[in-house]
């Protein structure tokens, strides 16, 4: 009986310690401050305003042999780098509204056919991959 009481008492004490650690320790009278973060926090510029050339330095913890971001062995770092040198087909406004990139498409439409959504991309004739190969 004494052992059961001891175990019950220590588990109750342990639970109380855990719950006490989760509390904020404030009386609830303190004011909460919030900081509003803008939807897009960058300097918008047109292509003509951006200087060509230069050096861009970035720190990566690792960049493995697997450069395909859709492969199971790819890392988050490889995925980040992949997005830097591949075309960006979708654009988003600061409000989060989607639009197609007019550098690659002349039109993008979506319609429902036999209960399936069919998206049709009309590729611009001048559109190329980063190596100059036509996108077709």
The proportion of residues in beta strands is 15-25%
Indicate the percent of residues in helices.
10-25%
Largest sheet: 2 strands, antiparallel
Secondary structure class reads: alpha+beta
Strand order of the largest sheet: 1-2
Helix and strand run:
HHEEEE
From the alpha carbons, calculate the radius of gyration and give it in angstroms: 27 Å
Number of separate strands: 4
| Terminus-to-terminus distance | 80 Å
The parts where pLDDT drops under 50 for at least 5 residues are none
Bulk shape: extended
Number of helices: 2
Mean pLDDT: 79
Write the layout of secondary structure elements.
Layout: H1 2-22, H2 76-85, E1 90-92, E2 98-100, E3 105-113, E4 116-123
Antiparallel strand pairs: 1-2, 3-4
Signal peptide: 1-20
Keywords: Signal
Protein name: Oligopeptide-binding protein AppA
Description:
With 136 residues, this protein is α+β, with helices and mostly antiparallel strands. It has a domain at 60-130. The chain contains two helices and four strands; from the N terminus they run ααββββ. It has helices at residues 2-22, 76-85; strands at residues 90-92, 98-100, 105-113, 116-123. It has a two-stranded antiparallel sheet with strand order 1-2. Strand 1 and strand 2 (98-100) form a beta hairpin. The N and C termini lie far apart (80 Å). The model has no long low-confidence stretch (mean pLDDT 79).
